[in-house]
Inverse folding.
């Protein structure tokens, strides 16, 4: 539940996500924090000395009942001069005799009133965080291993599974790569040493899970980091590919 500051001092902040279609550009998102009806009532009584909370709650229930009834009658309802509630069909109607059709299935929609729109234009907010859009690898495992201790050991020409977030491989430059681990424990920065998994070896490709067969040229007995790269989002090619690399290397058995 969202904590409410009755002194109206709660900081308002947004998160930024890099836009990979335009350099040095970020998309701002407002975190969705819901204030409940009970919390609104608490604020009303806190800011208005002597008001009866239960009378306000009763009035709100009556108001809600009338708003819902008018919406069900097909009216557009102006809610407290903040927004208009109106209904719209869920889909279009295909018919040879449209005049005899009965349209079924509606949804609620809202239109912001000019007063609220103007007030929001003048607001400002701090940045709370910058969200990384790169693939995030949380686990790499051998899916056919039965013993838990063997799941972290991959086998050449066998399958591997990656779980995490934003893993889906897309675009001409996208792919899954084996990155050699160096003696100091870091990953090789020379992409000439990276070994790409052929696209046809990827058997599962979703945002949360990747499954693939290890390339035949992977050398057993070595340790590798796994890199996941995508160069497109929702079918649109990015200006620069984005890459996520596992934090811990895995061993490939001989």
């Amino acid at each position: 539940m969202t904590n409410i500051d009755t002194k109206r001092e709660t900081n308002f902040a947004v998160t930024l996500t890099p836009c990979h279609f335009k350099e040095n550009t970020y998309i701002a998102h407002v975190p969705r924090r819901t204030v409940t009806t009970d919390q609104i009532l608490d604020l009303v009584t806190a800011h208005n000395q002597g008001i009866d909370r239960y009378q306000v709650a009763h009035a709100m229930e009556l108001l809600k009942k009338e708003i819902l009834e008018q919406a069900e009658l097909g009216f557009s309802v102006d809610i407290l001069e903040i927004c208009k509630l109106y209904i719209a069909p869920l889909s279009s109607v295909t018919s040879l005799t449209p005049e005899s059709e009965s349209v079924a299935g509606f949804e609620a929609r809202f239109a912001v009133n000019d007063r609220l729109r103007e007030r929001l234009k003048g607001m400002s907010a701090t940045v709370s965080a910058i969200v990384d859009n790169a693939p995030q690898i949380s686990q790499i495992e051998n899916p056919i291993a039965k013993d838990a201790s063997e799941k972290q050991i991959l086998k050449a020409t066998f399958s591997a599974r990656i779980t995490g977030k934003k893993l889906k491989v897309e675009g001409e430059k996208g792919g899954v790569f084996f990155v050699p681990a160096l003696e100091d424990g870091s990953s090789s920065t020379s992409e000439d040493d990276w070994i790409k998994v052929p696209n046809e070896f990827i058997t599962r490709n979703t945002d949360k899970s990747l499954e693939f067969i290890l390339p035949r040229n992977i050398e057993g007995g070595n340790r590798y980091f796994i890199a996941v790269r995508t160069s497109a989002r929702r079918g649109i090619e990015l200006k620069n590919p984005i890459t996520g690399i596992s934090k811990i290397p895995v061993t490939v058995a001989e």
